[in-house]
């Protein structure tokens, strides 16, 4: 949570699983994609942070 930006770019042929890799499945939770796993990690990190007044901004394009 030190002000870093990141990007994940998925590039491949049509119907090759890019959306599934990024989003995953709701059930079972073991098939979650990169986006929900990253959000869980970010929110856990914020919750555990020592500074409760940190600001957090998300943008999904």
UniProtKB/TrEMBL annotation:
InterPro entries: Kinesin-like_fam, Kinesin_motor_dom, Kinesin_motor_dom_sf, P-loop_NTPase. One of its GO terms (cellular component) is microtubule. It is found in: Cytoplasm, Cytoskeleton. Residues 1-61 form the Kinesin motor domain. It comes from the Eukaryota. Keywords: ATP-binding, Coiled coil, Cytoplasm, Cytoskeleton, Microtubule, Motor protein, Nucleotide-binding. PROSITE patterns: KINESIN_MOTOR_2. GO terms for molecular function: ATP binding; microtubule binding; microtubule motor activity. GO terms for biological process: microtubule-based movement. Belongs to the TRAFAC class myosin-kinesin ATPase superfamily. Kinesin family. This is Kinesin-like protein KIF17. It comes from Lonchura striata (white-rumped munia). The lineage of its organism: Eukaryota, Metazoa, Chordata, Craniata, Vertebrata. The gene is KIF17.
């Amino acid at each position: 949570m030190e002000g870093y930006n990141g990007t994940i770019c998925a590039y491949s042929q049509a119907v090759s699983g890019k959306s599934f890799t990024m989003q995953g499945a709701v059930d079972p939770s073991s098939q979650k994609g990169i986006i929900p796993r990253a959000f869980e990690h970010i929110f856990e990190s914020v919750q555990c942070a020592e500074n409760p007044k940190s600001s957090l901004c998300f943008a999904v394009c």
